[in-house]
Automatic annotation (TrEMBL):
Gene3D superfamilies linked to this entry: 3.10.400.20
Gene Ontology terms: cellular component: cytoplasm
Predominant place of localization: cytoplasm
Domain PUA, residue spans: 90-181
Location within or outside the cell: Cytoplasm
Keyword Cytoplasm part of the UniProt annotation: yes
Name recorded for this polypeptide: Translation machinery-associated protein 20
Organism: Sporormia fimetaria CBS 119925
Keyword annotations of the record: Cytoplasm
């Protein structure tokens, strides 16, 4: 989604009523963020909306990117927020072979998640339940971690459910979203 270098077109302050609605939508989508929401989006601070190309809205606070949204699609966390609160998001893991493709902006394919190095919810290899127990449905927002790496590298929306991925083991797993090193990652504010 953000392969090229981005330039923001306009920056505006979000009205307090809209800010409350955004906050409620974030808590509905990411309930594990509730203990941290007052730190992430303090009620008294002013949220700003940065308009990006292709009808993407980026929400920032004090020039720190927090969330972005394409038109009326799901609201997605920026990777800087994911790195700060990694346990608050639904996670999956790709194998080492898929890393270079994801970091070059390719669509995440199911083999990267279903191979021995990948992890999906309910995998036997996931002893501590880090990737969840319940299957995920198409349309859910996920954070993708990479085998052998500490921080998440990708945020996107599932194109197929995890149960289907385990069964067919091929096809597009996740829509192109925001990844380390893309235009959104490199966007400068000031």
């Amino acid at each position: 989604m953000f392969k090229k270098d981005l330039t923001s077109s306009s920056k505006s302050k979000v009205k307090s009523s809209a800010q409350r609605a955004i906050r409620a939508r974030i808590l509905e989508t990411y309930p594990l963020l509730e203990p941290h929401i007052d730190t992430i989006l303090p009620k008294k601070d002013q949220l700003e909306l940065v308009k990006l190309p292709d009808r993407v809205s980026l929400y920032t606070l004090n020039n720190v990117p927090l969330f972005f949204q394409h038109m009326d699609d799901a609201i997605l966390p920026h990777l800087t927020l994911v790195h700060k609160y990694p346990d608050c998001f639904t996670r999956l893991r790709i194998d080492r072979g898929a890393i270079r493709f994801v970091l070059s902006g390719a669509t995440l394919m199911a083999p990267g998640l279903t191979s021995p190095g990948g992890r999906l919810p309910g995998d036997e290899q996931d002893g501590e339940g880090r990737y969840g127990r319940e299957e995920l449905e198409a349309g859910e927002v996920v954070v993708i971690e990479a085998e052998g790496k500490e921080n998440a590298c990708f945020v996107g929306v599932l194109k197929m459910g995890t149960a289907e991925m385990k069964k067919v083991k091929k096809g597009q797993a996740c829509e192109a979203g925001h990844y380390l090193g893309d235009g959104l990652w490199g966007l400068q504010f000031g």
